[in-house]
Amino acid sequence: MPAVKLTSTPQQKRTLRAASSASIETTFRELKPYFRNSRWLPNNNRYRDDCVESLHADQPNNIHQDSLVRYIAASALPHVLDGWGFVGRAINAYVRGDFVSCRHLAYYAELRATMGLLASQGIGIFNKSHYVVDDAGSAKRVPNNDSTHLLAWKALDHWSGLSRSTDLLSSVITPGGIAISEWQSGIFSDAGFRIVGRNWLKRWNLDVQQCANDQKLRNLSSYRPSRLIHMDFHHVSQRVGFVKEFWRLCEPSGAEPFQRLDRHLLRMWLRDQYSLLRPGQTNSDNPALSKLIRKVSRKNFGWNSCAAQLNTPTVLFSVCWTKTVNVMLTLHMSGCLREL
């Protein structure tokens, strides 16, 4: 199967730029009465139960604007909740030694987290019919008929390149209860994190990018016998170690819901920012870099390392995106949530 073009067209970019998170916040607040009755949407919402089929039936001229905008606003948090459910099932599959299912479920956790984030920014991902909510609260269709996987990557790639994406990211990583946006003002220039943050967003979404262009890989996990597929075997001790480190990484501590992860991200940020200023000088035995990290750590935390050593680097990579989206959404809609 030929590779699919992963870059957005100029028409798609223009439409995606019109997406408005402010409109989503406003609409989300309007849903408050339904939350009190344990519902996300009113019973008469056109797209509540069979969104994709109803949306296809209504195109191109009979879209129920109010119902669609409300659906996109309401879908953000449930997408992320479902994403964490996929994470749990992926870990269960890994512990059982079902590595094919683990990979498959972990990818869908990332995809659903991505769809939740995009929905909060005013971008609704549906099957070949995708819409953005603009400043006026109107839903506009994204040109072309890209698949869910492909448009999710294109929209995420576009959003990651916007300054508001890294501004939001810098405010949700809070080592020691202090946002990275405050850390950088005392160490590096304010613009520095935007470059590092943009690189992080791209790196954490490599799986979304790869699977957007690799239907064969997705089909392999969905339709072929997993025991006939060759994959590297992980011993039981490796699997137990993974779960242990994953738990420690996500374990809350007082006012810091992701203490260990945030402090490790601080260390990563210092290293990556230093690399931008002095390329090729970020090896582990660089005395200047080591001194900077120790100084920041001791001054603010009273300890010598920004994070305990993780024996399974994949743990850090796999949880970063879901955690980031989770906190982004909570922060982004915090005003709405406080009113509930």
User: What pattern of helices and strands is seen along the backbone?
Assistant: HHHHHHEEEHHHHHHHHHHH
How far apart the termini lie comes to 49 Å
- How many helices? The count is 17
| Unreliable spans | 301-320, 327-340
Residues in helices, as a percent range? 55-70%
Structural class: mainly alpha
Task: Describe the sheet with the most strands.
Answer: 3 strands, antiparallel
**Estimated radius of gyration:** 21 Å
Strand order of the largest sheet: 1-2-3
Overall, the morphology is globular
Describe, in plain words, how this protein is organized in 3D:
With 340 residues, this protein is mostly helical. The chain has one domain (10-339). It is built from 17 helices and three strands. A three-stranded antiparallel β-sheet has the order 1-2-3. β1 and β2 (131-133) form a beta hairpin. α5 (65-95) runs antiparallel to α6. The longest helix is centred in the N-terminal third of the chain and has 31 residues, at 65-95. It is globular, with a radius of gyration of 21 Å. The model is unreliable at 301-320 and 327-340 (pLDDT under 50).
What attributes characterize this protein structure?
disordered C terminus; 340 residues; single chain; mainly alpha; 3 strands; three-stranded antiparallel β-sheet; 64% helix
